[in-house]
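Catalogue entry: protein
Contents: sequence, fold tokens
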Amino acid sequence: MDQWTSHQSQAGCKQDWQERLTSSMQHSQWSESISPIANKVASGQRLSIEDGMILFHHPDLNEVGRLADLVRKSRFGNFAFFNSNVHVNQTNICVLSCRFCAFRRSKKATDAYSLDIEAYVEDLSKYAEFVDEVHSVGGLHPDWDVHHYQQLFKSVKEKFPHITIKALTAVEIKHLAQLSNMTYREVLTILKDAGLGSLPGGGAEILDDEIRAIICNGKESSDEYLEIHKTAHEIGLPSNCTMLFGTVETLEHRLIHMDKLRKLADETGGFQCFVPYPFLPDSSRLPEAQGSTGSEVLRTIAISRLMLDSIQHIKAYRMNIGDGLAELALQFGADDIDGTVQKESIMHLAGSTAPLDHDMSRLSKLIENAGCVPIKRNTTYENFERFIPKKPTPVRGLKMAQ
């Protein structure tokens, strides 16, 4: 454990990990087109949007991945992170109707549901003994204002004080502010005092309002997303950030999106993790979506690691991309694979086939298969533990039937 503690104490210091990166790249050979970018990475210069476009069009995916992997290793060695969490999606009733969403239901739909506080706590109690985070996002319920969530979070923390609450995307915060006639800061302060520990990053989609008008009309604007996260950071609530790609955006849109996030990270230091994930298409939602191949997912994750120098962690969100690609992504710049999850609705209704029954031993095996060392973390990346699966205890005198 001493090795990890020492490494982590330096991981957030750019000078230290940059020195390790520079040293590791001294004898690396790069193709002509990518060599100037590799030199910028080695010397600690921020990559431009033009650099990102070169990386997106570079014919050798493995070379892009190798560069991103060197950056990952300079920050974290061969450590890769996961946590023990459960997703509880509190309601699928939503006043919006985003074109890419397979989860949303109208209030009158036969399969609409809303977990009241008692039902939510009861559902969480099934997992509370072996998780330390609950991740809750859902629809914009027309009747639930900030006081509903204030009481919900208080109830969770009273019954399960060891569980960190990561909940409510930016558009949910905007909705609560409108319903409650409050500012974003007032809503976030009330929820933080009630037990909210951090914000997830969902809802960023692509931070371009023309694209948002096509895929999620009525959601928060690009500036509102950034303002809500900035406000959270200012009152001491860390957050994640995301990018949904493979809808109708261009490669340049993706890079501008990353640039907006890293600029806010420069200002606040409040983004813990970036989570890029592809749209999961079907025939009924957003038929004009371009989709993403597996190689494009890996390339986008690698470029995220290279562009986002001011956001420490890059997550391979296996609930969306599956275990196989998540394992590969740990060699393409990602250092985190989320957690045990246990149950999840939003991605699975959209078409995800990722298994939901992972225990920590299976997750650690996935990490080891990628050549990494599994590190169990808490929600806010402050507590870490080298995870070593427990071995079965042999029973003396027991013989197998012949």
Q: What stands out?
A: The mean pLDDT is 88. The chain is about 45% helix and 10% strand.
